[in-house]
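Researcher: I'm comparing several assemblies side by side, and this is the next one on my list. It has 1071 residues spread over three chains. Same procedure as the others: predict the full complex and return the structure.
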Amino acid sequence: MENAMKTPPAQTWDDNVVLSVEHLTMRFGGLVAVNDLSFNVGRGDITALIGPNGAGKTTVFNCVTGFYKPTEGRIVMRHGKGLQADRIEALTRTGRQFDDDGDDRVFLLERMPDFEISKRAKVARTFQNIRLFGGMTALENLLVAQHNPLMIASAMTIGGIFNLPGYRKARAEAIDFAAYWLEKTGLIDRADDPAADLPYGDQRRLEIARAMCTRPHLLCLDEPAAGLNPRESNELNELLQYIRKDHDTSILLIEHDMGVVMQISDHVVVLDYGEKISDGNPELVKNDPKVISAYLGVDEDEVAAVEESIDMPVIHGKTKPADNGEGGQS
Amino acid sequence: MEYFLQQLINGLTLGSIYGLIAIGYTMVYGIIGMINFAHGDIFMVGSFIALATFLALVALGISALPLILFITLLVSMLFTSAWGWTVERLAYRPLRGSFRLAPLITAIGMSIVLQNFVQITQGARVKPLPPQIQGGVTLIEGVTENGTIAVQLSYMQMIIIATTLALMIGFSLLISKTSLGRSQRACEQDQKMAALLGVNVDRTISLTFVMGAALAAVAGFMFLLLYGVIDFYIGFLAGVKAFTAAVLGGIGSLPGAMLGGLLIGLIEVFWSGYFSVEYKDVAAFSILVIVLIFMPSGLLGKPEVEKV
Amino acid sequence: MAAGLVGVLGFFFLALRTDIGTGGLDLTYRWGLWFISIAIAFGGRLLLNLFVFNRAKPIASGIKISLPAGAISAGSRVLGPFLLLVALTLPFIVMAVYPDRDRQFIDLAILIMTYVMLGWGLNIVVGLAGLLDLGYVAFYAVGAYSFALLAQYFDIGFWMALPLAGLLAATWGIILGFPVLRLRGDYLAIVTLAFGEIIRVVLLNWYDFTGGPDGISGIPKPSFFGLDFTRTGGFAEFFGIDYDSIHRFIYLYYIILLLALITNFVTLRLRKLPIGRAWEALREDEIACRSLGINTTNTKLTAFSIGAMFGGFAGSFFATRQGFISPESFTFLESAIILAIVVLGGLGSQIGVVIASVVMIGGIEILRNLGFLKEIFGPDFEPTQYRMLIFGLAMVLIMVWKPRGIISSRNPSAVYKERKKIGSDMVAQGEGH
């Protein structure tokens, strides 16, 4: 997939799709946050969703992960290879939430409640404003993420109360798995510290580690590089590359840091005012005049510009003042 | 029909009293996000102060009833406000910025203290006060098989409903027009930021308690006049009902509190009138549960948008 | 400045107190007493003003320094086994030390233990899952009435009824919990309060079934493997010892101790299980829980129903201990006391609940026995009146002193290398904030 960057028309993400968002519309009262949006997330890709503040990126995320019920549209998650178009059409007609025959499972995320999306469809997410379990240790945070397998292992708690060997084994494995991810994110020395005690950059990585502990097929990251210094940002790049390569996990991320976006993503989707204005590899998007006028036009490093632009109310007459940062519905 | 109308009037009267207490709950909740459990007992203290003042004035030989009522109202508002202020100062202010359950527990503690304080100083027996304002207007007279049935609007009820209306209007103006109201709304949004911008947060919160207590005193006085019987325990049930009213209307919203109060009053009176007196509280609470299940932020509350 | 504040505060108290003094004797003809009471109120208030309120500031700031949290938490590790040992041997200690008042002390111990158990049960709901439940007494009532009614109508004994009562309370927990658990924070609080009141009012008015305000009496006492604690043919005769009614008290004490220890054991186990960790995660951040695939409704329901179940056990025990129950025993005040025990003890802390129960419940009972004050203040003075007043003041003072409760640190449920206590400032309080 790396070479997809050099050959713009290849578009592997349309052939081997893990997640497809189809005609997604989300309205809040009269406000149209996302309007008829369609895009694909390729399996094994790092896909970036970018756009100015208030473009509707987080809303898309919330629809994908089930925190909002979309007004219209379909969101399909595939575990198996290929488009499986017929099967998905059939499933859509039945009114069921998912079809989990065999390994090629397909899920209609817009029909599923949020926790089921993580549990069954294996879509994990992080949050723009970090949501860790602050009073619990880093290790406990990662164990909570393995709740469902552990629940089964503890025979819905009953086996656990009597501390049966089956549960003890599962518990030891869960701790090992958590330790593995703590190792990978460089947090193993802080395993027994409360999450709220960790520095900001560590908290970001811990949240990613926690999401990975649900063993996701698709990892959705909401501004993972926000607030990181350049060194931490680089480490994050490496971590994401590692996750994608070694764990068969596709990544969908929202990011403002263009450095991160251009460096690591295979596929970029640009939103503005809830509509898609560009979709392609980073090279293509970078040179798209629409994107430049809507978003990148000010400067190469848009983030820096926005952060300094508290007194500058508009960018190209379109974006909102950047004073209150990125609200929940950006 | 006549019976219905009569119940409607009674319900509105009772509802006005609940509404006045509910405003105290809703304001405090709006500004510091805590359930002021002692508020019902502030109401009770208010009615006791009113009773004492009333008797004192009578003992002093003042015979003009309107004058007595007016002075009693003012005195009870003033002194109950002082109680409200003191409770806030002693039990809540030291815990400001602390976690959520601490002030709840001190509030329950304060409620126990107030109840027992009044019980000790005033005795546990009920205090009857003979009806002071008698008479009324007969609105409709109807004839049924059992004889005539009249829809009465007593002067007492008129006074209660009118006072409540006047206070509501005055209050809405106070909140929307004055700088105090503005400070309150600012503290509601963000206390730290309000403080940075020069709002005296402590003073604003104290004043909120003072205003809530003053309204509770009015409610207490009217309760005394309407029912003529008070004891140290009236605060609990009235408090719970009023809080229910505040939640029903959408906590944090002043019109909501009034609406909730009226609804609770009506539900109670109609339930007692048509079904059973014993289960009137069950009816009020059941309605609350049902409303909350379908409208989790109450009738007039702002729907809570879940920020992710 | 402070003095001025105290002056104003004192003035209002002063004025108010005298004012209320007037009303207290309304419509009675004790005018002489009335003047004296005003004078006493005035004078007492003035003295308090001068000596207590002027000093209030330095005392308060002195208290704030208090013990370092570390000392308490280090102590609590030793404290647990120590308290257990004391609890196990308590009846014999009491009988040895206070042979003439043993019944009274054991009865007090039983009462405290009941509250410990209730506190532990509620701790699951409020302390671990972070759901504010103001109607916990409802489940206590369900447990008590289940047993009483089962005994009355079906002649079922305590040991048979106990699991049934627990089950019934848990079922009620689910029935009541299901519609309301999606409410947030204070809405949940008021609805649970409402449910508590509804159940009480129904018990009060459903005369045919529950006996209404008259309650149910003649609830059977628990038997010891079929042996009753009666003068003849019971426990004493079987073991060949002299009959003494104290045996029954001791037996009751051990029943409640056993029940409480089971509650504690199960809670501690659950905390280390995925379900318990999910409760705590729920308290910390519900949205994050959902993003990790946790079914928050079910998780809340389990917390609610398990808490309710222990409340139900405690309720049956209460019924069998008293032999008589009426709706009087299940007022909101009970819920408030149990909640206060949990919060004062420190949310989520098991030992904290024990300490808070001993202090609060033991404290109330000690205040009952302040008869000697009568001799100081004359026969009209009734010290027991001040019991609840002091109880309420103590609640306020302890909370202001330690807003996080007596034991506020959290023990992690799983350890990688080293167990570290988690300071209370990190731990969230659940729903709403």
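Model: For your comparison table: Strands of chain B lie at 127-128, 136-144, 147-154, 229-230.
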